[in-house]
Write a structure and sequence with these properties.
Structural class: mainly beta
Distance between the termini: 47 Å
Oligomer: single chain
Largest sheet: 5 strands, antiparallel
Strand order of the largest sheet: 4-3-2-1-5
Mean pLDDT: 85
Helix content: under 10%
CATH architecture of the largest domain: Roll
Order of helices and strands: EEEEEEEEHEEEEEEE
Radius of gyration: 21 Å
Number of helices: 1
């Protein structure tokens, strides 16, 4: 058992008898009262999100976690398939686990997968990914005043605001956190 002050984002804990992943945490104090840790937890069984407070007198049980680098192979009705390049073992993540992060998956790229007690529970995306521009409108004459941007569509289908000099078939770097343009590759 550990103190709630050791709770960190991304760690797995046992809460009400089921494993949860910590999505957010804030250490708070209110006036003269004892401090507490406010957390947002996601159940690893059903994906439900809950907000809870842990007082400094509470005990927290942390679960053993590891991170494994796996190569994304393909998607089918079972889910998203990732392969261990050393053992060629196939790991499947459900659509619930991937969620909106699907747009950043590129076949053949390696991704970190969080394992809790040797069971895959979450995909950890890198800070940025590379994508090919598949549709880009031409810049208009006179659009050069200031920091003007235009919308382009990348290979995953999302639209990103980029500088005017980006053209079709350019490879650009996109932030996975806010889907913003970070530069050309």
């Amino acid at each position: 058992m550990a103190s709630p002050t050791e709770i960190r984002k991304g760690r797995a804990i046992l809460y009400q008898g089921t494993p949860h992943i910590v999505l957010e945490m804030q250490h708070r104090t209110q006036g003269r009262q004892a401090g507490f840790v406010q957390t947002t937890l996601r159940s690893l069984h059903n994906g439900a999100t809950t907000t809870t407070k842990f007082r400094s007198t509470d005990n927290v049980e942390f679960l053993h976690t590891t991170t494994q680098k796996l190569e994304y192979s393909y998607k089918d009705n079972e889910g998203f398939h990732f392969m261990d390049l050393e053992t060629y073992e196939d790991t499947i993540l459900s659509e619930d686990m991937i969620g909106e992060d699907e747009i950043f998956l590129v076949e053949g790229n390696n991704y970190d997968i969080l394992l809790v007690d040797d069971k895959a529970v979450r995909l950890d995306l890198p800070a940025s990914v590379e994508a090919t521009v598949i549709e880009a409108p031409d810049a208009l004459r006179g659009d050069t005043a200031g920091n003007v941007q235009k919308p382009v569509t990348i290979s995953s289908g999302i639209t990103v605001q980029v500088p005017l000099f980006i053209k079709k078939d350019d490879v650009i770097k996109i932030s996975t956190e806010d889907r913003s343009y970070q530069g050309r590759v």
